[in-house]
Amino acid sequence: MRPPVIRAAALTALAALALSACGGDDDAGGDRPPPSASPGGGLVVGALDSLEFDSERYQAEAGTIEVTYENQGSLPHTFLVEGHEDDLELEVRGSGATDNGSITLPAGTYTVYCDVAGHQAAGMAATLVVE
Ligand SMILES: [Cu+2]
C-alpha cells in the first residue's frame, strides 16, 4: 500500500520544484517577449512566396522592438537583421506559421532579409528604419 502513495507525493514535490525553478528566472536568454509588451509598438512582417516581404520598408521605434513574423505563403522563410544575426532569427515554416521575438536596436537604417538559400538574392530583403 505505502510505496505508490509515497512515489506520487515525491513526484508532486519534484514537479512543484521544477515549476518554481522555471518561474523565477524568465529573463535569462528567453526568446519569448514579456507579456507586458506594449501594444502597437511592435513590428509585424509578412513573408510571401514571391520571395518578398510584404513591404519594402518597415519602421520601428529605437529600443526594444517586438517583431512578429507571419508566413503569408507556404514556403519556409526566415527573418534576420543584417549585422545583428546573433540577436534575432525568426523562422516560419508552413502556411500561416508565425514566430516572434525581440531585438534592441539604436536609431539607424537596417537591411532585413531571409537567409533561406536563394531568397535574399531573389529579392527577399527590405529596409528597416529605426528612429
Ligand atoms: Cu524566404
Description of the structure:
The strands form two sheets. A five-stranded mixed sheet has the order 3-9-8-5-6, with no helix packed on it. It has a four-stranded mixed sheet with strand order 2-1-4-7, with no helix packed on it. With about 130 residues, the chain is of the alpha+beta class. The termini are far apart. About 15% of the residues lie in helices and about 35% in strands. The protein has one helix at about 1-25; strands at about 45-50, 50-55, 55-60, 65-70, 75-80, 90, 100-105, 110-115, 125-130. The protein has a domain at about 45-130: Immunoglobulin-like. Residues about 10-30 and about 30-40 have low confidence and may be disordered. The radius of gyration is 20 Å and the shape is globular. Copper (II) ion binds near residues 51, 77, 114 and 119.
Essential attributes:
131 residues, alpha+beta, Immunoglobulin-like, 5-stranded mixed beta sheet, 4-stranded mixed beta sheet, 1 helix, 9 strands, 37% strand, binds copper (II) ion
